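Open question from group meeting: does this chain pack into something compact, or does most of it stay loose? Before anyone orders reagents, we agreed to write out a predicted structure and look at it together. Recording both the input and the output here so the notebook holds the full record.
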Amino acid sequence: PLASGEAFDLNVQRYGGEPVLTWFQGEVVDGHGQGEDVVESTSYHTIAVVHAGNGLYADLHELQLTPQGTLLLTAYEGTRWNLTAVGGSAEGDALDGIVQEVDVRTGLVMYQWDSLDHVPVTQSDFRAPSSPDTPYDYFHVNSIDQLHGGDLLVSARNTSAA
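Structure tokens returned:
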């Protein structure tokens, strides 16, 4: 049962060589999730509840277990950003699309990738908000996948790119 909120992205994945159920549970706020990711055995016993690290909440769009015993998750963080290059405010907020790799057993963040460090807001196909009080979701992580060799493929809805 859910502690609160809604559930998204129910999947059968593998953890420790065994099939498990995974899903996001939490609240939906402005098209993003604020919650946690759950890993349960096929007999419905909770193996882990995985939280995003670094003061963030897990997002509803994607969670993927890796063969290394980690979970790839998405998160968002509002960041003060100059949006004049895209027609927004010099004192605007951009939503930083974040991918974290979290150790399922310990909850430690093993890796974090931030869209604002790699993809400029000018790459967005999405119009900047007219109000400086509305965060600019310029990137919008839709999905992530770990490729052979460990590289990550990140799909970004609002840049029409991966």
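Observations to bring back to the group:
The mean pLDDT is 94.
DSSP finds no helices and ten strands in the chain.
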